[in-house]
Amino acid sequence: MEPVHVAIIYYSSTGTIHTLARAAAEGAEEAGATVRLRKVCETAPVTAISARPEWEQHLTDTADVAEASHDDLEWADAVLFGTPTRFGNPASQLRVFIDTTGPLWFRGKLADKVYSAFTSSNTAHGGQESTLLALANTFCHWGGIIVPPGYTDPVQFQAGNPYGASHVAGDGPPGDVSLRAARHQARRVVGIATRLGAGGAA
Ligand SMILES: Cc1cc2nc3c(=O)[nH]c(=O)nc-3n(C[C@H](O)[C@H](O)[C@H](O)COP(=O)(O)O)c2cc1C
After folding, report:
1. CA–CA gap between residue 135 and residue 83 (Å, rounded)
2. What is the pLDDT of residue 200?
3. What CATH number should be reported for the domain holding residue 93?
């Protein structure tokens, strides 16, 4: 049986979302999926990036991560998007990628896939849920099947966000609970995609 294809497409300035994306990749692989981990293109001006050494460093550290393309979306049975919260919304870098997908959408290539999303913010009530719900607007337009984690695993009662794995970056890098939540979300996405017939299991 062909494994479920999972694309994890993310943006990260300083590494938090990159760390969650890698945890999601582990979860999807544990569940038997073939995974493509992809970053979106950096669009911020060089002056903004160089003003923050940790941003510049993360760009260097992730230079070898492949950039997301339309082929990744077409290939995938399920897509997990990761983005930091930016004033309660997804990062513009991720939106730039999403806003190039009109031709795929027009040909119906984005419909009937499983979609899910994860995020981080600096503060506990800094807009995580609004960011995830904003991405869900797009998934509705695509005709996607939105799969949130809900409270489907004990870790969700610790992580506390049924909309998608989320981390408070102001508390430090993602720890055990955030990483387990990301892995669980990805495993669940693979499980639902399998039940929908992805990977030839209809
Ligand atoms: C322009 C901008 C807007 C932001 N808006 C918010 C916000 O609304 N709420 C919040 O808690 N943190 C906000 N942050 C902090 C980021 O969400 C946080 O640094 C990010 O989640 C870290 O993820 P990363 O390490 O993957 O880049 C903002 C950061 C920037 C640069």
Report:
1. 10
2. 62
3. 3.40.50.360
